[in-house]
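Hey, can you fold this?
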Amino acid sequence: MHAVIFEKFNALLTEREWSGPVLEVGAVPTEKTLLNLPVLRNVTARTGINLEGPFTFKDFEILKGDANNMDRFPDNYFGLVLCNAMLEHDKFFWKSVEEIRRVTRPGGLIVIGTPGFADNSFQKFKKRFEKQAWYMSIKSSKAFGFLLSSTLTLEVHGEAYGDFYRFSPAFFREVIFRDFHSVEILPVMRPPRIIGLGCKPGSDPRS
């Protein structure tokens, strides 16, 4: 995990209200897994899940399991669910998204990061000139048209376990966080990684 992403997750959790227990989907037994965020230092109920494992790392467990079916966890259990750079490697990511939503308690917070694509300064530049004749001439040319019809995304990576998808802000807004509240979607770095967060509707009966 890039240090900028790690720090951004930590800053976002510092700014939001949430309470444990905490789950990281796609956790790994390294210093840069999200369960090691400084803001979580005093949270005792931290659990990870990964296709590989199980692992014990520092003071938390990473269970072996598939995020497509997390039936080992009850409905509405976790107060905070984290996931980064995992969904693009998940052939059936929509199943994992629904499981993440299911295991999060009402009022709980979900924070997810993926590589993606989003408006950037070059796209804003293009929009200024898209009706100009010279722009349309370049866009329709065989030699240079691809430059005006493309956007920057993170390179293919993780070939050993597959790299299948890139995601847009609309995916976060309309799929992951549909009907959630306090939703925030943040493109970070270049090529863009997108971090989205939001709260599950309802109030936590434990509070």
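Oh, and this one too while you're at it.
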Amino acid sequence: MQGGTMITDSHCHLASARFSDEERGEIMCRAEAAGVHRMVTLSTCLEDVSKNLELADDPRVLATVGIHPCDVHNAPDDAVERLCDHVADPRVCAIGETGLDYFHPAPEGWDEETYRERQRDFLRRHFELAVSAGLNVVIHTRDKEGRASFEDAFAIYKRYSDRVRAVFHCFISESELAERVIAEGGLVSFGGVATFKNAALVKEVVKLVPAGSFMLETDSPYLAPEPMRGKRNEPAFALHVAEAVAALRGEAIGELAEHTEAVVKKFFRGWNEST
């Protein structure tokens, strides 16, 4: 990256089955070569916690622990409590990926409202865990239409925002919602969607939010940015996100890196000003 500038991919899924064990080391090296020197790998279920922690043995990687809202029907009732065993691990930097997903229909055997209430219950318990552990929270929201998942997640966040911070990751909604998150002490993060030609809404948010209120991400292996759209995403492609965001904001890439890195160091446990 220009001038040796380094950025962090604040949200990726290195334990995904779309990345083979044999290539994960190469993926990390490609990221570092592209100027992406650190990666946060997100757990989404109990089963992938150990793999994410193993990946965080690499000093370029930290991991989160959490149950994705699309997995709450598979998770045991005490799944969040089982995560307590890991929160003191120095490789764990935050709680997540948690949140609310009203985009995907309720799985077989579940009615819509019962499924959504289980998601809300899990989200509340993730926040309780975060408070007790002194960690921040990574939130997913998604709707087929409207913004009910955001409103419900934000209402839950407000009950805890005096004690922990949350990042609403892969933010693609209106600027008004970003402003509400930021006013509550939270953050948003921008990924590949911010590079899409037809993503006028999120591009406007990128231009408007103040420095210090957002991070950069890939959400890999999903949502590859332009010019890699349609390919399997990976942390190295955070460079394309950074270039697009910097251009939209009229900032030099080094300036963008400086303030987003400061946010990363403050939000995630385990990285500080000396790293």
